[in-house]
Amino acid sequence: MGHCHEEVWFSLLLELFLLASQIVLPNATIASVTSTNDPDLWFALRGGLNRFGIVTKFTLKARPQKKVQFGTIYYTEQYCRDFFEAVADFTNYNDDPKAALIPTLNALPGGIKTGILYFFYDSPTPPPASVWANFTAIPHINVTISPQSFVQTAYPTETLISNTYGRRQLFSTTTFEPVTRELAGAIYDIVSNSFTSRSLQPGFLTGSFALEPIDQFMLAQHAAAGPAAFATPNRGGAQLLGELNYIWADSVSDGIWSKQTHDDIAALQKAAMQLGQQEATPWVYPPYASVDQPVQQIYSGTLERLRRVQRRVDVEGVFRNLTGGFNI
């Protein structure tokens, strides 16, 4: 599961909602794992993915699902840079934990680009107008926001999945800090220019880049979630999470798009360093990571403990090289 609206109440990763797991271990025994009876394996299962056995049952924290405010706003290309800069402002200054958003820049063949902002407010009643003021002040095509069930907020994702079924697709990611309007504008310029050139290539279907806020509320909840394999560095300030996604027609072009995705992420990291980022290899968000991204960036500060746990529960290495997850 990727970045979601509930993170402000729990943590940055679904697995950190975990209270208990039932797992079939590589030696064929069945274990119930909690923070008290096996704290090391519990730590590993919270973000360590499927390198420890087969999870057959899990217990998660949950919240009542009331109606929420959800909607979208669309921007033409000429206002998308302003839109990205407004995301930086929201990330730094939003003081309402109920407010969340997913901003995206999208490209179609021929270089047609559109900005889409997905609004989310965790209440059946509308938020104060000031919450979205920076976004609604930018000239836009259309804005819709209304009370919806939590399930309905997933419909845009469901439509996207059905439209891309059977196509080739690759995700990659990086993170940014400190968050500034200058950085957000530079990110937009790099992604927009890349989409212009990539969208003219044979086989290109769509390109998408999400610039997702990681604000003070999310970081605080993540830190309070307890020990976990995925431990986001928190240096005291807000951060931005970038998710790059290309979809193309067939496997003949796999190598080309893999390289282009890698090059785009490298260009974004270089720009961030030039604008004050201290980490040349920043942490990587597991659900968005590509197979060629270093595992040291995914499990920054926890990798050695993960390896010790994996070798304890999987002495013969049964799960070390299976499909899915990352080799640790």
Automatic annotation (TrEMBL):
SUPFAM superfamilies: FAD-binding/transporter-associated domain-like (SSF56176)
Keywords of the record: FAD, Flavoprotein, Oxidoreductase, Signal
Signal peptide residue numbers: 1-20
This protein's record includes keyword Nucleotide-binding: no
GO molecular function, one term: oxidoreductase activity
Family label: Belongs to the oxygen-dependent FAD-linked oxidoreductase family.
Protein known as: Berberine/berberine-like domain-containing protein
Origin organism lineage: Eukaryota, Fungi, Fungi incertae sedis, Chytridiomycota, Chytridiomycota incertae sedis
